[in-house]
């Protein structure tokens, strides 16, 4: 479904800066696309991570796609948001 140069970062309880740092390191290691995925209570946190990353990297990244849906997790349906961002060259 995703290209080999895509990394999915699942957003959870860790501090927002941890996810921003993970994304920056991934870009430096050659990953072209990152998907920030927040489920349930962490949907708004995924958006916060995107804006913190945008503040840090500015115009060197772009928001490519936003996917909103639900998926079955441990037998329950959970809402999610997936923000696909790409590094500009």
Characteristics:
43% strand; alpha+beta; Translation Initiation Factor IF3; DNA/RNA-bd_Alba-like; 89 residues; nucleic acid binding
Textual characterization of the structure:
Helix 1 (16-28) packs across helix 2 (43-57). The chain has two helices and four strands; from the N terminus they run βαβαββ. The chain has a single domain (6-87), classed as Translation Initiation Factor IF3, CATH 3.30.110. It is globular and about 40 Å long. By secondary structure, it is α+β, with helices and mostly antiparallel strands. It starts with 5 loop residues before the first strand and ends with a strand.
Topology:
Layout: E1 6-11, H1 16-28, E2 33-39, H2 43-57, E3 61-73, E4 76-87
Parallel strand pairs: 1-2
Antiparallel strand pairs: 2-4, 3-4
Helix pairs in contact: 1-2
CATH class: Alpha Beta
Backbone structural class: alpha+beta
* CATH architectural name: 2-Layer Sandwich
- The biggest beta sheet, please? 4 strands, mixed
Number of domains: 1
Portion in strands: 35-45%
How far is it from the N-terminal to the C-terminal residue, by CA? 23 Å
- Write the H/E string, N to C: EHEHEE
**Helix-residue proportion:** 25-40%
Q: Look up the CATH topology.
A: Translation Initiation Factor IF3
Shape: globular
Q: Please list the strands of the largest sheet in the order they lie side by side.
A: 1-2-4-3
**Number of H- or I-type helical stretches:** 2
Q: Please provide the count of β strands.
A: 4
- List segments where confidence is low: pLDDT < 50 over at least 5 consecutive residues: none
**CATH homologous superfamily placement:** Alba-like domain
Give me the Rg, rounded: 13 Å
Mean pLDDT: 92
InterPro entries: Alba-like_dom_sf (IPR036882), DNA/RNA-bd_Alba-like (IPR002775)
GO molecular function: nucleic acid binding
Organism: Staphylothermus marinus (strain ATCC 43588 / DSM 3639 / JCM 9404 / F1)
Protein name: Alba, DNA/RNA-binding protein
